[in-house]
Amino acid sequence: MRKYSSTVTFTNLAKDLKGILMDCNYEHLEDVLIDCTIDSVVDINCKKKNLDRGEKPTVAKTIELGQQHHESKNQLKLLREEARVDQIQGRAQTKA
């Protein structure tokens, strides 16, 4: 099964899965698509967000939460990189 990664957006993942699942003639395509989308996500915290909301997940909401989680991780990564650069630059300035 195709897994979500940093190079595959949630929207593309859902489109790909929907295309694959339509060939299978499932009676409840939306439910199967939601399950497959959540199952394809590697990040356990994102899965928990989708499953622990207390309401029935929708395809749109599942994709939205996944995209938000991905963006949050990217922003955190950038902040950590900036902090590291600041730390390195601070050391260079101290030695000068």
Number of strands: 0
Strand content: under 5%
**Proportion of helical residues:** over 70%
The number of helical runs is 4
Write down the overall geometry.
Answer: elongated
Q: First CA to last CA: what distance?
A: 54 Å
Low-confidence stretches: none
Largest sheet, if any?
none
Compute the number of structural domains: 1
- Give the topology string: H per helix, E per strand: HHHH
Residue-averaged pLDDT: 76
Computed structural class: mainly alpha
Question: Based on the structure, what is the oligomeric state of the protein chains?
Answer: single chain
Q: What is this structure, in a nutshell?
A:
By secondary structure, the protein is mostly helical. Helix 1 packs across helix 2.
Any descriptors?
mainly alpha, 96 residues, elongated, 73% helix
Description:
With 96 residues, the protein is mainly α. The model has no long low-confidence stretch (mean pLDDT 76). The relative contact order is 0.13. 73% of the residues lie in helices and 0% in strands.
SSE map:
Blueprint: H1 10-22, H2 29-40, H3 44-51, H4 59-95
Helix pairs in contact: 1-2, 3-4
